[in-house]
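As a warm-up, study this chain.
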Amino acid sequence: MTETVIFGTAQPKQKEFFMAHKKYVLYGGGRGGGKSWAVREKAKRLAIKWPGIKILIIRRVYDDLRDNHILPLIASLPPALAKYREIDKSFTFINGSRIKCSYLDTERDTLKYKGQEYDVIFLEEATEFEESTFDVLKACLRGANDFPKRMYLTCNPDGVGFSWVKRLFIERDYRANENPEDYMFIQALVDDNRALMEKNPDYVRQLDELPDGLRERWRYGSWDVPEGQYFSEFRREIHVCEPFSIPSEWRRYRVFDYGLDMLACYFIAVDSTGDCYVYRELYEKDLPISVAAEKMISEGRSEKIYMTLAPPDMWGRERESGRTRADIFYESGLEIVRSNNDREAGWLAVKELLKVTERDGQKRARLKIFDHCTNLIRCLPQLLRDPKKPSDALKEPHEITHAPDALRYFAVWWIRAAEEGPENRIEYTKSWLEDLKNATSEEERLEIYRIHGGKPKNRY
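Now compare it with the structure written out below.
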């Protein structure tokens, strides 16, 4: 007796997913795009087409694994074609192919896959996993056979894995050991799932009624609004602009956040109305202070930089030498001004610059970022709110905090200084810089730094 396998009818985006041949393919982005169905169907088709192939389907929670994969596969696969074993949650096909269903309740569960071999891995809801899980599973894609070695991922734009998934598949920002040709993203939204739209038309309305942030992620698959996003005001269409020639009369500032792991430096121009334009970015790793200073000076050599703002920790004295990093910057030719390190006030100042208002019938903000400042554009919307202190942002992952911190140092100085009036700000700034230039000894210069770092002018 011949058993018949009934395959469902794929939607256009699902067909694209079935035909994708890249090593790592991400499918989804919004709710209702038919992700789990596409995974089951592709796994079945691969198992039938390639006798002996080994396939792994992974989810975080067992209940989701059972409801979305195990039970539907049991219902759709005739027993004569594939037998299910509950003990290891696997389907063994008559042609020797195998689909194993597994769940990783904790990150430690990933360790059991070290040393295992699979030809194809499906990682469902990939943003529920840390990047370390992805790395371990990538190493499992091997075997001395001719089967395709691929990993298929599905997800929505939220969860602990938001940053690494976005980096690889949305921003396509690759490290030295990552081949851009291996990665592919297929966006699928509820609008792409005609079957769901026809059977449950109210689902779209339910998505449209979600609160801000959640609606952008689940309805439209937006990667600019992560869960717990600190700067929910950020919108690419409003805050990012094409570069243009900065008028010579606009005042230009340089601001930076520095550590041996990263220098994040930004050049910001302010027009006559007080609108701020981030027009240049210097973002490099592993730079000694002297090299960092040289690069920042070089970037601004052809223009008049009114002031260079720096984080207050540059003035902390080294226990061994008694010197500060501000000293080394100064000796390297870069005069820096101390900004304020009040984190909450700083983030509120950035929010003030990002705030969207109506002007001349258009939505506008006081801060614009030139589109080639890619790291600031990448990191700013990824900064998350600290759940223990909602008025502050998380300091992790550290990789994405440098650029927002640099912007914070400018924003808190600019907002506070503007409140006192531009005339006072200009007079005072010129005065202290002139004092610094006229200093005749190391002790006198250090005393100037100390005075201008204390009250009442602690914004410097």
